[in-house]
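seq as requested:
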Amino acid sequence: MATLELIGFGSTGWGALLLLATLMTLAVTASALAIGAVLGAIISAAKLSGRTSLVALGNVYTTVFRGVPELLIIYLIYFGGSSAVTSIGKAMGYEGFLGLPSFLAGALAVGIISGAYQAEVFRGAYLAISKGELEAASAIGMHRGLRFRRIVIPQVLRFAIPGLGNVWQLSLKDSALISVTGLAELMRTSQVAAGSTRQYFLFFIVGGALYLILTSLSDRVFNGAERRANRSMPTAAMGKA
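struct tokens:
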């Protein structure tokens, strides 16, 4: 009973804070995935462009941000970003330290890492599109923009769903590293609860269970999206042109 009261939603319980921290973890991860999707699309386009300089730039991005430890990138974005903001503030006449918001720094750092992986997911998905579909679209008079909207985007998204599911899981686990910035996400709140109550095993187990629940539910969502995409292959897209 004492353990349930400790974790519960009573006056001495940590349940509400852990729930809010779980929602914060989801918000950071979703924001990071959105940032990564934009960066990944740009980098994959660069790598598929065939232009030597753009391909080299894309290769540097994916190599660096997939090879450097995630925690180091978070430190660079958080502390480096805070230093840059402080310098800008001083140039505008403001005295004192200006810190980059923890949520923004965390989402940006994880998003940059996610973008490196999403770039490869999108590139592989594009290469998986049947060349015959693109040639048939051109043959019936589809201009480049319409072909991209009706054929390329739906097919890329369809082929990318499994890879994006893996990137989401990676970003979800990377969000635990943002605790070093002081953001009250799931890992940080579990640490604070464990330190405040001296119930280390209990709260770290609860935190791990909540992460497991999130990853399990995420698997179901992405598996469902993949099944739906495979049932509704956009083969009729050309007929709608």
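DSSP finds ten helices and no strands in the chain.
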